[in-house]
Write a structure and sequence with these properties.
The protein is an alpha/beta fold and 243 residues long. The chain has one domain: 3-Layer(aba) Sandwich (Carbamate kinase), CATH 3.40.1160.10. 36% of the residues lie in helices and 19% in strands. The strands form 2 sheets. The protein has a 9-stranded mixed beta sheet with strand order 4-3-5-2-1-6-10-11-9, sandwiched between helices.
């Protein structure tokens, strides 16, 4: 792959959506420091291109609300527990990014001012204008909404030009390519195709919100070294969801 110096960014302000599971590595739960460091290096490569970067991270590596409801925890309570898990992940990413010399702010939709800022839209945009990486934690702050929806919401609120969904594979497939060798890979899809085919790119609320605000969704593999910078530059392997 060409190095980042050869990449001219196509987008100037982007939001990266990371699943909590992406931080686990080969572990069954928790946070793998090596994976966090590697992902942070990917973020730095994009930041070094002059691109303004925000992140939304899930919490499934620590706790998932739906799993909690399956063992008797009330769904709303479980979702709040999951939101708190995202704050833990956000703080881990903040620490790793700051070790790389990147000024970073965590903003939580649930107020906890001892450890991070409350989410304030105009403050978040001001941070991004200064070149800080902003990590949005605690989802939307409401139960029954996923962190995918939170990502689409924050991207819309802060004027991001693209929403990048980091996954374990290099795009959107008709089925799980690890289980079905005949799974078809898509280079480009329309929002309505994703919804009608139930392709599981993101949940329906997130897709609809991105569609309403005309924010393209780019699905790529976070495990490809240099992949984030290439996708932001319109190169590499990814699936783009637009109108």
């Amino acid at each position: 792959m060409p190095d980042d110096a050869g990449n001219e960014p196509k987008y100037r302000r982007v939001l990266l959506k990371l699943s909590g599971e992406a931080l686990m590595g080969d572990q069954t739960s928790g946070i793998d420091p090596d994976i966090v460091a590697r992902i942070s290096a990917e973020v730095k490569s994009v930041h070094d291109l002059g691109v303004q970067v925000a992140l939304v991270v899930g919490g499934g590596n620590i706790f998932r609300g739906l799993s909690g409801s399956a063992v008797g925890i009330e769904r709303a309570t479980g979702d709040y527990m999951g939101m708190l898990a995202t704050v833990i992940n956000a703080l881990a990413l903040q620490s790793a990014l700051e070790k790389l010399g990147i000024e970073t702010r965590v903003q939580s939709a649930i107020s906890m001012q001892e450890v991070c800022e409350p989410y304030i839209r105009r403050r978040a945009m001001a941070h991004m204008d200064k070149g800080y990486v902003v990590i949005f934690a605690a989802g939307t702050g409401n139960p029954f909404f996923t962190t995918d929806t939170a990502a689409a919401l924050r991207a819309s609120e802060t004027g991001c030009e693209a929403l990048l969904k980091a996954t374990k594979v290099d795009g959107v497939y008709s089925a799980d390519p690890k289980k079905d060798p005949k799974a078809q890979r898509y280079d480009q899809l329309k929002y309505m195709e994703v919804l009608t085919r139930d392709l599981q790119v993101m949940d329906a609320a997130a897709i609809s919100l991105a569609r309403e605000n005309r924010i393209p969704i780019l699905v790529f593999s976070i495990y490809d070294k240099g992949g984030f910078a290439q996708v932001v530059s319109g190169k590499g392997r990814f699936t783009i969801v637009t109108d």
